[in-house]
Design a protein that fits this description.
5-stranded mixed β-sheet, 6 helices, 13 strands, binds benzoic acid, binds fe (iii) ion
């Protein structure tokens, strides 16, 4: 096409695609370019503004490293990670939520009833529940990969003072599907905001805070792997999570209980002398089709 105009350029783009290209790639590229062109037309985008957009992408690439995933963070704060999650989560299973960049693979095994708190200060949190299928049956042998921040608001991978698997554990449940562990109550924290994503947050008048949460990846043969989080119902950032990860069914009561009610069969049984917090959170996995 020689006579490309601002009105026909989108159709011209589509006409340049090969007839024999994969159908799904055609669908995605056509839609992406349609929306990009419409965005430029609707906002009457200027050269300076588009250059700022390109500079944002270049800034993300420049800061990207093994420990810093700025493009993923951009996808998180723009709500795209959560939207893609919700498009593919199963209605009758526990909601999924963002993975985030701080999970460390290869966590050491944590026995059912085990402790992740170790010598860290703060009240004990007892987290427990049952991994179930959508019919309510316990899933024997399910595996939960657990991770969270230390009381200083940092994940082990961000903090040289912690060992790399601090507040990480891999638990395999028994025939009753029950998991239980002790830890400290996670704290709210900020996502990294010293790079281009921080510039976007500031430009939009947004803060970088996430409500406190425990992260789980739950796996079992024959079931869809679930990446999720559990939040306490009294967290001040629940209604303004900067990465849009909160779902109704992931918000739980962290109940304060007297030390005398601490259960037997836990690594800390007999050692809890002050009131502790307890959260019950059952996880429902969808069948893998
Ligand atoms: C997190 O929960 O660890 C997280 C999620 C998205 C972006 C940054 C952190
Ligand atoms: Fe997190």
């Amino acid at each position: 096409m020689r006579n490309v105009t601002k009105d026909n350029i989108t159709d011209v783009f589509k006409s340049y695609m090969a007839d024999d290209m994969p159908a799904r790639t055609r669908e995605i590229m056509s839609s992406l370019v349609q929306h990009l062109h419409d965005f430029a037309r609707e906002t009457n985008l200027t050269h300076d503004e588009w250059r700022q957009g390109i500079a944002f992408l270049e800034g993300c690439a420049a800061i990207e490293s093994e420990d810093r995933h700025e493009f993923v963070l951009a996808s998180d704060v723009l709500g795209v990670s959560s939207l893609v999650d919700m498009l593919h989560s199963s209605d009758d299973a526990t909601s999924s939520s963002v993975l985030g960049p701080f999970h460390v693979s290869g966590a050491p095994p944590l026995a059912v009833g085990g402790d992740m708190k170790r010598d860290f200060g703060g009240p004990v949190l007892l987290a427990q529940g049952v991994i179930r299928d959508t019919e309510g049956n316990p899933i024997a042998g399910a595996e939960i990969d657990i991770w969270q921040t230390a009381p200083n608001g940092l994940y082990a991978s961000q903090d040289d003072a912690q060992d790399i698997f601090s507040f990480h554990g891999l638990m395999t449940v028994g025939n009753d599907g029950r998991y239980a562990f002790t830890t400290v109550k996670p704290v709210e924290y900020t996502v990294p905001s010293d790079g281009p994503v921080g510039d976007i947050l500031r430009a939009c008048g947004r803060h970088p805070w996430r409500p406190s949460h425990l992260h789980y990846i739950v796996k079992a043969p024959g079931f869809r792997t679930l990446v999720t989080e559990v939040f306490p119902e009294d967290d001040p950032y629940l209604d303004q999570d900067t990465v849009f990860g909160v779902r109704d069914d992931l918000v739980m009561k962290y109940e304060e209980k007297p030390a005398s009610s601490f259960p037997d069969g836990m690594a800390l049984s007999g050692k809890v002398t002050a009131p502790y917090l307890a959260v019950d959170f059952d996880v429902i996995l969808a069948q893998d089709n």
